[in-house]
Amino acid sequence: MNKQSISKLSLFLTGLEQRITENADFFKKITIRFKSGTKFYEAVVTLKENRLFLQYNGRNDRMEISWLGARIAKIAEQYEAMNLIYEERGTAIHIDADDRGVKMKTRDQDAADAGKGHNETSQIANRDYYIKVGHADAVLKAIGILGENGKIKNDMIRKYNQIDHYIELVDDMLRNLCARYGKINVVDCGCGKSYLSFVLNYYIKEVLKKNCHFIGLDISKTVINASKKIAEQLDYKNMDFRVTDIRNYTAGEDIHLAISLHACDTATDEAIALAVNNNAKAIVMVPCCQKEILSQYSFDILQSITRHGVLKARLADVLTDGIRLMLLEAMGYKVSIVEYVSPLETPKNLMIRAEKTGGVNKAVIEEYKQLKKLLGISPTLEKLIMPYL
User: Fold this and answer.
1) I want to staple 63 with a disulfide (CB 3.0 to 4.6 A). Which of 18, 67, 163, 310 is the partner?
2) What is the DSSP string of 55-97?
3) For position 114, what pLDDT does the model report?
4) Which of 341-355 are b and which e, b meaning 16 or more Cβ less than 10 Å from the residue's Cβ?
5) Taking CA 180 as the corner, what is the angle to CA 184 and CA 165, rounded to the nearest 5 degrees?
6) Cα Dmax for the chain
7) Higher per-residue pLDDT: 290 or 122
8) What is the band of 217 on the pLDDT scale with cuts at 50, 70, 90?
9) Are 173 and 167 in contact (CB under 8 A)?
10) In the prediction, which pLDDT does 119 show?
């Protein structure tokens, strides 16, 4: 190729060097085809431990990321033309170069386009899915929702709908966080096998096209090891998993989103406290099995109602989540609570959403103290965030 094309190619390759540096967790490989006459010669570039490896002409050479442009441009000088495909999760960049010039185009596989021709979702429900069969096949198979035949398993239809509705309910929050911070850090408190984190990871990176990093925390070594295996299978290098009690966790970097799904009783309070005490920018919690307040509260004026056990338990559930919302408001969060799934499926169907908007709200603290005294309760969440109240 002529000098003009080589010069322009070098400029594009310099841009790829920067992209690899910034997106190392998402980089897959670079495939190159050099053309000489009617013959083609291939080269492949991979990344391991922050070093590039160039397989070309029977050799596998290690090099710094910053050497990529100069090395490929030098090889390209020997050929008439070349085609380069840069691949990372959710994105492919194509560079075609010859004596007539150099062209570059980015091909983002859009979820909507990729889902065309796949009728499975429309057979499940009349809705436009956020996590589409076709585009999301890899992650849906990895978490056991999609079968090898490319269809949602019959016994997983409900779970698939729940996960997709979760994404629908947090979509605006995710977009706002990505717009504000660029790359976002997500902590999954009591992650279990991390199915929700894997889907969120897919959605943020491959649908919203934003960078992210996930940390899964759980006290069980068994489920952490299972999560690590799924991450390795999916090549999700932007995920870490740690065996730890969430009460003892202190973040080493900003938490933009803290999540927890069906953490039982005061485990939800521990997850909220982790988020508050680490100044998380946003919180999404789906509580489960509220028991603590049930054994504590009394309200004489409602005794004729609460003497019925089932009604006392239901009121305790409302009080538990209401107090959580009050304490989050007291800590400067804007809060909302919505039905996550139909109450016909499970009574544990509420989702708490919170976004940090300000500092401590003393008026809400005083209101909370009066309610606490009136009900005769001593919630765990207050104790866990006491130094910050």
Assistant:
1) 67
2) EETTEEEEE-GGGHHHHHHHHHTTSSEEEEEEEETTEEEEEEE
3) 41
4) beeeeeebbbbbbbb
5) 65
6) 92
7) 290
8) very high
9) no
10) 42
Would you say residue 346 has pLDDT above 80? no
User: For residue 288, what pLDDT is reported?
Assistant: 81
Domain range list for the chain: 3-108, 256-265+284-389
pTM given for the model:
0.87
Query: How, if at all, do strands 27-36 and 81-88 pair?
Result: antiparallel
**Mean pLDDT, residues 177-206 taken together:** 96
Closest to 326 (Cα-Cα) out of 337, 338, 312, 313? 337
Token pair of 377, please?
């309760």
| Average pLDDT score, the chain | 91
DSSP 3-state of 273: helix
To 10 degrees, what angle do helices 266-277 and 309-330 make? 0
Q: Which residue has the higher pLDDT, 290 or 232?
A: 232
Task: Look at residues 290, 309, 310, 311 and name the one whose alpha carbon lies nearest to residue 377.
Answer: 290
Are 185 and 212 a contacting pair, CB within 8 Å?
Answer: yes
Task: Please say if the pLDDT value at position 110 is more than 80.
Answer: no
The answer to whether residues 115 and 134 touch, using CB atoms and an 8 Å cutoff, is yes
Contact 83, 93 (CB under 8 A): no
Contacts of 152 (CB under 8 A, 6+ apart): 120, 121, 124, 133, 140, 145, 146, 160
Residue 320 identity (one-letter amino acid): T
Contacts of 71 (CB under 8 A, 6+ apart): 54, 63
Q: For 18-27, how does the pLDDT look when each residue is reduced to its tens digit (9 = 90+)?
A: 999 999 999 9
Residue 9 tokens, joined = 């190619």
